[in-house]
């Protein structure tokens, strides 16, 4: 997204970095003095605040080192480590060409030796049942997360959750698909990008019962810090699906904030709260959607929408007539 950088962002001088003037010229004010904000991956004009690029690539290593020793022990070649690959992407591949570093053909004894090495390297790679499980699971994770368009950071978190579950033997007797779906669902909650349980189920064809079983299993045995989901997070998703104007979404968020101040949201399903707020907002802004439409989008029952709506209107003193 290219747009004005928010005034609220406070950048420390460490995060700011001046770049050679030749690389970027601001398209709005022709200023050549720009910042690279590495924490956000953005190039920003220092004169007017226009974001010139938000796709900067981090060429640095994925590890941190604080001493020279650490620096030396962590340096390596290859791509960045990736938790969502079963071997973290740190694999050794023994080439098939049977030539040495300078391109000469290997002798027959050497060739036999390399052949055995290659064979055992492949065998040890996915040898134990845990490793095999992980290899299958990570492939599934890649497939599902691209189906659900899950961003990279969340995919990594779910890979870590799955690995922890595997280490604690929670995957015994559960399907790989179910556990992967549960890890993904929980990772979305951790990152506060809510995906309703039902949506995950629909996409990857497992029953809601199985998914919630896996989710509860992981929650019970892994110490995950999951922030409470806030109904506001659902407003944009549902609002967009219902094709509501921005004004109505804004109104719904205002109503939800008010409801939270009045302690109406406590113990209520955030989806139901969001649905009711959207219903009220759609009426107030003259872009009315029916309770049924909203209930379908939010995947709650019509009764839930109606009940939450009544509470809201009563307690907040909103008039919808
Ligand atoms: Zn500028």
Molecular structure report:
With 321 residues, this protein is mainly alpha-helical. The chain folds into four domains: 1-58, N-terminal domain of TfIIb (Single Sheet), CATH 2.20.25; 88-125, no CATH class; 129-221, Orthogonal Bundle (Cyclin A, domain 1), CATH 1.10.472; 232-316, Orthogonal Bundle (Cyclin A, domain 1), CATH 1.10.472.10. The chain has twelve helices and three strands, in the order E-E-E-H-H-H-H-H-H-H-H-H-H-H-H. Strand 2 (42-45) and strand 3 form a beta hairpin. Residues 26, 28-29, 31, 45, 47-48, 50 line the site of zinc ion.
Mean pLDDT: 82
Give the strand order of the largest sheet, numbering strands 1, 2, ... along the chain: 1-2-3
Oligomeric grouping of the chains: single chain
What's the tally of helices? 12
Terminal Cα separation, in Å? 39 Å
How many structural domains in the coordinates? 4
Topology of helices and strands:
Elements: E1 34-37, E2 42-45, E3 51-53, H1 68-74, H2 108-125, H3 129-147, H4 152-167, H5 176-190, H6 197-204, H7 208-221, H8 232-241, H9 246-261, H10 270-284, H11 291-298, H12 302-316
Antiparallel strand pairs: 1-2, 2-3
Helix pairs in contact: 3-4, 3-5, 4-5, 5-7, 8-9, 8-10, 9-10, 10-11, 10-12, 11-12
């Amino acid at each position: 997204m290219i747009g004005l950088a928010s005034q609220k962002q406070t950048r420390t001088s460490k995060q700011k970095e001046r770049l050679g003037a030749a690389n970027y010229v601001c398209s709005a004010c022709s200023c050549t003095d720009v910042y690279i904000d590495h924490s956000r991956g953005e190039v920003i004009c220092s004169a007017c605040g226009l974001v010139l690029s938000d796709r900067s690539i981090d060429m640095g290593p994925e590890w941190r080192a604080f001493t020279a020793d650490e620096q030396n022990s962590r340096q390596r070649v290859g791509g960045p480590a990736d938790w969502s690959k079963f071997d973290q992407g740190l694999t050794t591949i023994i080439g098939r060409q049977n030539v040495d570093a300078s391109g000469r053909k290997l002798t027959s004894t050497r060739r036999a030796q390399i052949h055995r090495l290659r064979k055992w390297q492949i065998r040890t790679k996915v040898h134990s049942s845990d490793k095999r499980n992980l290899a299958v699971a990570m492939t599934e994770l890649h497939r599902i997360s691209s189906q659900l368009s899950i961003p990279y950071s969340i995919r990594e978190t779910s890979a870590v959750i799955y690995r922890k579950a595997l280490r604690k033997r929670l995957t015994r007797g559960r399907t790989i698909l179910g556990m992967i779906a549960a890890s993904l669902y929980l990772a979305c909650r951790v990152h506060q990008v809510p995906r309703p349980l039902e949506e995950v189920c629909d996409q990857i064809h497992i029953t809601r019962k199985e998914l919630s079983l896996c989710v509860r299993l992981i929650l019970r045995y892994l110490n995950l810090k999951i922030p409470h989901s806030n109904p506001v997070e659902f407003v944009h998703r549902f609002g967009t699906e219902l094709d509501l104007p921005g004004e109505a979404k804004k109104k719904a968020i205002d109503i939800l904030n008010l409801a939270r101040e009045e302690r109406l949201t406590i113990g209520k399903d955030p989806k139901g709260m969001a649905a009711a707020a959207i219903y009220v907002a759609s009426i107030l802004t003259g872009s009315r959607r029916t309770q049924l439409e909203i209930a379908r989008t939010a995947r709650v029952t019509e009764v839930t929408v109606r009940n939450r709506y009544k509470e809201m209107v009563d307690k907040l003193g909103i008039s919808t007539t």
